[in-house]
Amino acid sequence: MRLGRPLLWVFCGLVGFWLVAPALIVLPLSLTGQASLVFPPRSWSLRWYANFFGDPAWIGAFWTSIQVAVLVTVVSTVIGTAAAVGLARGRGRALVAANALILSPMIVPGIVFAIGSYATFLALRLVGSLGGFVMAHTVLALPFVVIPVAARLRGFDRRLELASASLGAGRWATFRQVTLPLVAPGVLAGALFAFVTSFDEVVVSLFIQSPYLQTLPVKMYSSVSRDTDPTIAAAASMIIVLTTVLVLVASYVTVRRSRAR
């Protein structure tokens, strides 16, 4: 037993290092002064960040990803929270089928969903449109909103809602003033996962892109298939920094809310 806990910490440390090792390599590569991806860098420079922000194609793809991810976060958080409440409050066999349908994007292979989305959006003339990106990414992000919100609702004391109703509050007032504040950590976690899912999505985006509308992961894929310009390392570093900041901010807000309660 005395050796079990240290061994567990060592194992967890090795797993954590294995997970963050690619980031530890990408970040130095983005600061290389050479014109190719060589690790470790022999010289240091910010030229590839300057190239990233100075190239309209790169910066346009970056802002497209931000725009799509923000819209997907809003839409999927609203729909996913409502779906989680319905699944947690309802009864019947139909809810089992509805739950399986909502969670199916986590099970269906990405390439299968991408081909189906392309065929559907081609018929609806949504290929290469902002609405098409938002719709496709929202479907992929919904499970990551429903799961944490439903988990918070399962541990929720419904007597609080009954008490609110007995005091004259309507359903919307009860949800807004009682239920939503208590499940807010789950909603925040779902919104964070939705943003990251949309921002990092590449398989579906490759199928529904157009020459005039590309997300940053698609631009990165196109770049790495043509050359080894270290600008792609700068773009990858931007994604790593952005997602890390979002996780840290969400964790800080969640901890503060927990302490306040």
Kindly describe this structure:
With 261 residues, the chain is an all-alpha fold. It has a single domain (63-260), classed as MetI-like fold (Orthogonal Bundle), CATH 1.10.3720. Helix content is 78%, strand content 0%. The protein is built from eleven helices and no strands. It has helices at 4-29, 47-54, 56-89, 93-103, 110-124, 130-154, 159-166, 171-200, 203-208, 216-226, 231-260. Helix 7 (159-166) crosses helix 8. The longest helix has 34 residues, at 56-89. The radius of gyration is 22 Å and the shape is globular. The protein starts with a helix and ends with a helix. The model has no long low-confidence stretch (mean pLDDT 80).
Which helices and strands, and how do they pair?
Elements: H1 4-29, H2 47-54, H3 56-89, H4 93-103, H5 110-124, H6 130-154, H7 159-166, H8 171-200, H9 203-208, H10 216-226, H11 231-260
